[in-house]
Amino acid sequence: MHVRYIYAYKEVSAIHDVKITGLSFAYKNDNRLILKDINIEVAAGSFVALLGQSGCGKSTFLRLLAGLETSTTGTILLGDRPVNGASLDKGMVFQDYGLFPWMTAGENIMLALKQRFSQQDKKKLKQLALDTLNAVGLDDSVYHKLPKELSGGMKQRCAIAQAFSIDPPILLMDEPFGALDAVTRARLQDLVLKLWSQENPKKTVFFVTHDVDEALLLANRIIVFGQSPSNIIYECSIAEDQRPTRETQFDNPEIMKLRNKLIFQINKDVAARIS
Ligand SMILES: Nc1ncnc2c1ncn2[C@@H]1O[C@H](COP(=O)(O)OP(=O)(O)OP(=O)(O)O)[C@@H](O)[C@H]1O
Ligand SMILES: [Mg+2]
Predict the structure, then answer these.
(1) Ligand 1: residue whose CA is nearest its atom 25
(2) Comparing 80-94, 96-110, 211-225, which segment has the lowest mean pLDDT?
(3) Strands 232-237 and 221-225
(4) Residue with CA nearest ligand 1 atom 16
(5) Which of 13, 135, 236, 275 is deepest in the core (most CB within 10 A)?
(6) Of 7-21, 81-95, 112-126, 136-150, which gets the smallest average pLDDT?
(7) Residue 95 Cα, ligand 2 centroid: separation in angstroms?
(8) What b-and-e string marks burial along 176-185, b requiring 16 or more CB atoms within 10 Å of the CB?
(9) Is the beta carbon of 34 within 6 A of some atom in ligand 1?
(10) Counting ligands in written order, which one lies closest to the CA of residue 56?
């Protein structure tokens, strides 16, 4: 896949640890507690996969990290600063792509770039938008296409391009590959891993998925949320030298043990809900 790295005139963003303390959350229109007493510290540059059954609050958790919702109790610190509203230091890839349907793919990316690099010359930003589209394997013609003219996989690539183009130190990805066929999904997993791993310093990524194997392939930290009101019911880390590859993923006994453990935890949680 064609990935070249681009940002000759990019500013270097500070990357911070994330510290979440006593985080609870209920939507204002519904007093039901969705998240309850979440405590976690994530080192800067981690790739964190979030697992948990449907409706347990994974998207809500990302929206809190993004500053799109405000915690009911508790704090989220990026470094020593509390999250306070949405900002360009947090890029989000939404479950439904998050592209404005009335703008072309290029205009969607330009909108983010103009906010992020407001001092930059428009021509340079357009080149950056095209370079970013190329980096996710899309050619220049996609710049002029509306989202409805693109396949699901192409839309997903645009959303990833948009999120990476503003170079946020924190990247929040909500089931970004949920709707894709297995081959496209594998290619985009490789792409995201490549974009993340070749940066120095690395972005801190929070990546929601329902797929345990995807979590094991991409993440160096895995967190499982339990049923609502949701708390962290299991978590583990994968050391860099234990990281599986697509080829070795199912041959590594340690990774298989972890896989079984994760599936067991999720099934136990689902069973508790049903019974
Ligand atoms: N805007 C909202 N107002 C009120 N309740 C909401 C809102 N958005 C989500 N919820 C509720 O919050 C709970 C958690 O939803 P959320 O979307 O975070 O789950 P999820 O873990 O991302 O699920 P999925 O895996 O299906 O995407 C659900 O019960 C949902 O109905
Ligand atoms: Mg969700």
Answers:
(1) 54
(2) 80-94
(3) antiparallel
(4) 57
(5) 135
(6) 7-21
(7) 7
(8) bbbebeeebb
(9) yes
(10) 1
